[in-house]
Amino acid sequence: MTETLRIERHDGDAVWPAVEALGKAVYTPEMLAHSEFHDVDWSDAEHWVLGYLGDDLVASAGIHRRAVHVDGKPANIAGIGGVKTHPDHQKSGHASHILEVTCTLIDGQMAPDFTLIFVETHNRAFYEKRGWRVFAGTVMVDQHGKRIAFPDGSAMVRDGAQPAPRSGTIDLMGKPW
Fold first, then answer.
1. Is 62 exposed, middle or buried (0-12, 13-18, 19+ CB in 10 A)?
2. Is 1 among the domain residues?
3. Which residues fall within 8 angstroms of residue 75, CB to CB, at 6 or more apart?
4. Phi and psi torsions of 172, nearest 5°
5. pTM of the predicted model, to two decimals?
6. How many domains does the chain have?
7. Which CATH number fits the domain that encloses residue 152?
8. Which residue of 15, 82, 139, 156 pairs with 62 in a disulfide if CB–CB is 3.0 to 4.6 A?
């Protein structure tokens, strides 16, 4: 009998040590050295959606809320970051399930204008299959004391209360997630 993934939602700071440990299992130093995002300074998640098998944390997704500017106009958006599954449990549908639950929570409780996620190139197809679209514009972020454009093609969006933009400029007015 296959064990069912138990989903829990927690405040960001309360579970950070467990999420950080999962991240270290997923992103080994060797893997990070070759990652497109190896030196990114990420923002802290407001909430975490966590997936457990028994007492073991095996999957996660962070929820962010941010007032941003889209082509100079204010917007309230949600962000998802830190989507990961322990290497021993990958290819089991856990990331898909966590992402689905996270999107449902965001839509039902936050009702953002749209949702944004940053993904590495090799993960783009995974998100496209789930309705995310590549944002073909520029995303401005804060990094190491500077304002920079985040790498092209790494931002993906999904509709919320408004249709998500496909191009233009999104200014996160802070760090990415």
1. buried
2. no
3. 67, 68, 69, 113, 114, 162
4. -70, -15
5. 0.93
6. 1
7. 3.40.630.30
8. 82
Residue 11 lies in a domain: yes
CA 23 from centre of chain: 13
Summarised one tens digit per residue, pLDDT across range 143-165 is 999 999 998 779 999 999 999 99
Does 33 fall in a domain?
Answer: yes
Q: What confidence category does residue 1 fall into, taking pLDDT thresholds of 50, 70 and 90? A: very low
pLDDT in tens, 55-104: 999 999 999 999 999 999 999 999 999 999 999 999 999 999 999 999 99
> CA 126 to CA 134: how far, in whole Å?
12
Question: Strands, DSSP E only, in the chain?
Answer: 6-11, 47-53, 56-70, 73-85, 114-118, 133-134, 138-143, 146-149, 155-159, 169-171
Cα gap 57→55, rounded to integer Å: 7
Two tokens at 74?
Answer: 């204010």
Q: CA 148 to CA 139: how far, in whole Å?
A: 8
Q: Is residue 176 part of a domain?
A: no
Phi-psi category of residue 54: left, alpha or beta, with phi > 0 → left and psi -120 to 50 → alpha: left
Provide the domain limits for residue 31: 6-171
